[in-house]
Write a structure and sequence with these properties.
Blueprint (H helix, E strand, L loop, with lengths): L19 E5 L2 E4 H13 L6 E3 L12 E7 L1 E2 L11 E2 L2 H21 L5 E8 L7 H14 L4 E6 L6 H9 L4 E7 L3 H6 L6 H14 L3 E7 L7 H13 L4 E5 L8 H9 L6 H17 L2 E3 L4 E4 L13 E4 L4 E3 L3 E5 L3 H9 L5 E6 L2 H14 L2 E3 H8 L3 H4 L1 H9 L3 E3 L4 E4 L1 H28 L5 E3 L1
Parallel strand pairs: 4-7, 4-14, 5-6, 7-8, 8-9, 9-10, 10-11
Antiparallel strand pairs: 1-2, 3-21, 11-13, 12-13, 15-16, 16-17, 18-20, 19-20
């Protein structure tokens, strides 16, 4: 769950880790040097982030926590998508459905978690399971006594009469529609199996159905795409009822099809300066049109509830490749769907790897995701960790203030500036390629790895 928002820097460092990149006024370092700096900042000097085979496969949770369900099945296979997915078949769908049911039962028997705040269903394309998805949501409610918000990612092709019925049966209040673009040319270039007409129709249907939050995902770092094209996408999203707009650059993880293509074919994405300019124009357009920035990527219509998949302080993951975080450890389920089903059939939770998180990293993790939401309450930090935020992060705050990435908001709050938001998403992308990519690639190659050093 925590890694669902990551994408790559593409031309920012043009895949190679040795190219110099300019970070601020006259300050440039090589990517390899930047990696060392970030590693020291995240894990401490000379330390590694180590995922190991768990001694026990029963995560322990403190309330409250969110739930994440990953459905790695799609009818279509988009080359830019970095998440675990397989092409849907009825047999694979049924296998996954039965395995997830077993995982929910096992979790309810072995893990104490009673205060569940939300359920986020991602993929893949979750609606490919049809009414089996609503059965899984009902099972979460009955076995884990869950009665919170249900959020579901949906694909435009799945917004049919049956798809809407499934959403309603799940009693979902928050929807994220993966439109990517309303431009036929852009949709064709990224391999989406629908046109602008379908995308607009899907959003219109969802708006008329009525939800507390209706998010639209849009891509903006695509070769040949200019600001006018992006602005038209934003206007379509607004006019058709989106209460939130989330804009991502193109994913180019090395293990994705498009990542390999970029490495082999040297395809050029829009220059960094072009993408930076578009990012700021997106920010300005959204503010002018009644949206407020609620995360590094997202802008929510004023007065509406923000939609997010990655900002829960604790979360329990279900399904192949799902991650969990209990405040002290990270857990990852096996990425292999068959191995996942076999393990749950044996009566065990399908946890493949775990990593203990020291207190320093717990604090950093919490602070990072609060800044990802663009605002941090230093009083909350003090109550949560028993420390003084301004003392614990004195050097970092001096640097971030000098760079004009953060500013004083009101009371005990600090806010990320538009400039800080832009650079944070670039650094986030960098961490994704140098940490997440290595972890995911190895876990895709081996169902039960004994250890992965990052």
């Amino acid at each position: 769950m925590l890694i669902r928002s990551y994408s790559s820097l593409s031309n920012f460092y043009k895949v190679t880790r040795k190219q110099s990149v300019r970070l601020s006024k006259g300050f440039s370092v090589t990517v390899s040097a930047l990696e060392k700096i970030l590693r020291t900042f995240i894990a401490g000097s000379g330390k590694q982030l180590v995922f190991e085979k768990p001694l026990e496969s029963n995560p322990h949770f403190n309330d409250p926590a969110g739930l994440y369900l990953h459905i790695p099945l799609c009818h279509n296979y988009c080359s830019f998508c970095p998440y675990l997915k397989e092409r849907y078949t009825d047999g694979l769908g049924l296998l996954l459905f039965e395995a997830i049911k077993r995982e929910i039962h096992i979790f309810s028997e072995k893990c104490s978690l009673t205060n569940i705040t939300s359920l986020y269903v991602g993929g893949g394309s979750p609606l490919v399971l049809g009414l089996m998805l609503s059965e899984l949501v009902d099972l979460f409610r009955s076995k884990l006594h869950f009665d919170g918000d249900v959020a579901i990612e949906v694909h435009p092709n799945d917004i049919t009469g049956k798809g809407v019925e499934v959403i309603q049966r799940c009693n979902a209040s928050m929807i994220s529609l993966g439109v990517q673009s309303f431009d036929d040319r852009v949709l064709k270039s990224i391999g989406r199996q629908y046109g602008a007409t379908v995308a607009k129709s899907a959003l219109s249907v969802l708006y008329k159905t009525g939800f507390d939050s209706l998010n639209v995902d849009l891509l903006f770092a695509i070769d040949g795409q200019d600001w006018e094209s992006v602005k038209t996408d934003l206007q379509n999203a607004r006019d058709l009822g989106a209460t939130q707009i989330t804009c991502y650059p193109l994913f180019t993880f090395p293990y994705t099809e498009i990542g390999r293509y970029l490495n082999l074919k040297k395809v050029k994405l829009p220059p960094f300066s072009v993408r930076k300019n578009i990012y700021y124009k997106i920010h300005e357009w959204c503010l002018r049109n009644g949206y407020v920035r609620t995360s590094v990527w997202s802008f929510t219509l004023s007065g509406n509830k923000p939609f997010s998949s990655v900002t829960r302080e604790r979360f329990a993951g279900f399904g192949p490749s799902a991650g969990s975080y209990n405040g002290r450890q990270f857990y990852f389920n096996t990425f292999d769907i068959t191995a996942y089903a076999e393990k749950s059939d044996q009566g065990y939770l399908p946890v493949a790897l775990t990593m203990d998180v020291p207190v320093e990293l717990q604090r950093l993790f919490w602070v990072y995701w609060r800044f990802y939401e663009t605002s941090i309450d230093t009083d909350t930090y003090r109550h949560k960790f028993g420390g003084d935020f301004f003392k614990d992060f004195k050097i970092q705050l001096i640097i971030l203030t000098w760079l004009k990435w953060i500013e004083k908001e009101s009371g005990s709050h600090l806010r990320l500036t538009a400039r800080g938001s832009h650079w944070l998403h670039l650094l986030q992308n960098f961490v994704a390629l140098n940490y997440t990519s290595k972890l995911w690639e190895q876990m895709k190659q081996c169902a039960w790895p004994s250890r992965i050093d990052l």
